[in-house]
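Input (structure):
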């Protein structure tokens, strides 16, 4: 976690006009830190390739106001014990970090584990059928009973979202709520008790600072976090238009697995799911077993350690990676391997490819690697 001084500049940077996520990250990369961005002279900033003078002028005219707002947010964070996750730190969710539009900073509340275990997003219509709600509950329950270290991710909206959260809580597994507003409120308020209960083993995570209203565009933007945080996304009942299909498209764009529950051709609430399946943007699933099989999440399958001594031609890097994978029963994401080994990304991926050809590791959906049985 960053200290308060560093955090102030990190909070303030996205508040500058004409500085979106990509520009903010580019500025941090160029100057080395958010604080250095604010310390840079106009001449230094104008030396950045392809930056417009109007952008620089806007930054300099807004710095004081942005820092004042950041100071206020620091007070809110301290008073309410808010957790913060900066995209360059190790506790930032690694699945999300690999997405090009990942937030610079996340605000969290609860007992948050954002990197270990399996993450499944469950989304769907705000007006589900009784059958849709029952299917959602049953799949979450069966998954909770059939695999370990599972977290259910959704957005607390009416319908399928809150049904998935409730099912996770009743099953005794963590659930993670991704709202489209700051942590000073809960929307919709009717689901407040679910949010409170989620804090016991999961929690709430948002890119929005306090006093951010639950505006429509925020919910569209937060869908990328729901998709990017997870290994896979399950769509349970969706019309031909809606936030669930946006989340599914984003998950596809992030190379995540997408699953959908099919419905009858005459069911409008299933038209979106049927379209995803028909267009091969989602795999058809009818039960938790389909997801467990596709993701290879069946905890009953015990890995038999590969006897390293049988492979006398392993390189030093292969031995290092194989030792790591032996210790991770559920496998490791390639980004986490890079972080732990401090090896270049290209070297890790090429080494893993050679190990897969030798039959000593397996690649799983979502860039997860596991020692072969």
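Output (sequence):
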């Amino acid at each position: 976690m960053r200290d308060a001084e560093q955090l102030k500049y990190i909070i303030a940077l996205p508040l500058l006009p004409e500085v979106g996520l990509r520009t903010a990250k580019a500025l941090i990369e160029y100057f080395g830190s958010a604080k250095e961005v604010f310390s840079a002279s106009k001449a230094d900033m104008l030396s950045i390739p392809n930056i417009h003078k109007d952008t620089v002028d806007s930054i300099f005219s807004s710095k004081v106001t942005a820092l004042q707002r950041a100071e206020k947010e620091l007070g809110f964070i301290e008073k309410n014990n808010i957790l913060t996750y900066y995209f360059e730190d190790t506790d930032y969710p690694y699945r999300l970090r690999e997405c090009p539009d990942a937030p610079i900073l996340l605000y969290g509340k609860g007992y948050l584990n954002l990197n270990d275990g399996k993450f499944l997003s469950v989304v769907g219509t705000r007006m589900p059928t009784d059958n849709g709600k029952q299917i959602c509950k049953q799949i979450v329950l069966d998954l909770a009973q059939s695999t370990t270290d599972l977290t259910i991710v959704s957005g607390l909206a009416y319908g399928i979202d809150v049904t998935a959260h409730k099912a996770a809580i009743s099953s005794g597994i963590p659930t993670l709520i991704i709202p489209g507003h700051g942590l000073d409120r809960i929307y919709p308020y009717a689901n407040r008790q679910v949010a409170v209960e989620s804090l016991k083993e999961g929690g709430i995570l948002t890119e929005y600072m306090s006093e951010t209203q639950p505006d429509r565009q925020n919910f569209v933007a937060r869908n990328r976090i729901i998709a990017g945080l997870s290994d896979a996304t399950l769509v349970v009942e969706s019309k031909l238009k809606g936030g669930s299909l946006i989340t599914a498209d984003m998950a596809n764009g992030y190379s995540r697995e997408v699953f959908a529950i099919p419905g009858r051709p005459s069911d409008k609430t299933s038209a979106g799911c049927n379209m995803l399946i028909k267009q091969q943007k989602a795999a058809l699933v009818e039960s938790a077993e389909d997801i467990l099989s596709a993701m290879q999440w069946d905890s009953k399958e015990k890995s038999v350690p590969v006897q390293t001594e049988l492979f006398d031609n392993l390189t030093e890097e292969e031995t290092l990676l194989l030792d790591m994978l032996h210790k991770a029963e559920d496998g490791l994401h390639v980004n986490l391997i890079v972080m732990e080994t401090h090896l270049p990304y290209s070297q890790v991926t090429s080494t893993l490819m050679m190990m897969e050809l030798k039959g000593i590791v397996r690649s799983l959906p979502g860039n997860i690697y596991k020692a072969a049985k």
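Notes: The chain has three domains: 4-79, 108-295, 308-371. Residues 300-310 have pLDDT under 50 and may be disordered.
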